[in-house]
Amino acid sequence: MLVVCSSALEAENFYDDLNFFSAKSAPRRHFASGCIFSFLGVLPFENLSPHPDNIAGRLEGLYKLVEESAPILIATPAALMQKVIAKEALKQSYLYLVAGQDLRRDSLLEHLVQWGFKMCRWSRSAATSACAAGIVDVFSPGYGRPLRLEFDGDRLESIREFNPATQRTAQLQEEMLLLPMKDFSLKQSGVENALRRLDQRAWSWKWIDERRTVCSSRCARAFPFPGIEFLAPYFAGTLVPVFSLPAPKRRSIWLDGADRVEARPNVLAD
Question: In this structure, which topology does domain 1-84+241-270 adopt according to CATH?
Fold first, then answer.
C-alpha cells in the first residue's frame, strides 16, 4: 500500500502511529512495518548530495515494494514526483548474507564502496563502513545499529549488531539484508557509454570545462562526489515512477487527507 500524505511532517506522524500500533505484533523486526519514502531534499546540479537518511529511506522503501508481499510506503507528492530506478536494476544492488556462508571479505568491501557506502575509521552513522583485520562493520539502511561481520578466511563466521559507543554486542544475527546507499554503480557494465553521453550532455548544461572534466574523471575512476546521485539516468538506465514497481495486484493508494494531498502538487508547481 502507498500512503500519500500532504507534507513531510504528516508523513512522519503517520509513520510513528503505524509503528506504535504494530510494535506488539512484530517487536523483533529490524525493518519497521512502514517506511517513509523521503523527498531527496536537494535539487539536481546543486553540487550537493541528499542526506544519507533520505537516501536510505528511499532505497529501503523501493526494496519493500519489490520484495515484500504487503509493504506500506508513506510518501509525499514531492517525493513521488522524483522517478526511481527500475526493478531489474534495483535487484542487482542488494545482498542477503547468512552467517556461515562462503564470502570473501575483499568482495564485500568492493560491493560496499561500489554501492555508496563511505569507508571510515568507525561505522557510527548510516551509509558508513569500517574494516580491520577479519572484521567489517557496516551501517545498512533498515537497521537501528551498525552490524559487525566477522570473517574466518573466506567464511562469514558471525553477524551481530553492536553499540557504536561501547562496541559491545547488542544482538547476534543469523542473517542480514545489505541494502545499497546509491541508485547505481560506477563499476557496472555500460559505464563507458554513459560517460560519453554525460560528456555530450554537459555542453547543453553549459558546464565550464573544469567542472565537466572533474565530473567525467571521477566517474571514470568510480570516485563519488557531491551531487552524483542525480546522474542516475545516465548510469542506471531508464527511470520509472514509483507506482510501477509493485505488481499490478498489489497496487493500492490511500490519500491521507485527500483534499490536502490533491492541493499539494499545485503548491509545488508555484
Answer: Rossmann fold (3.40.50)
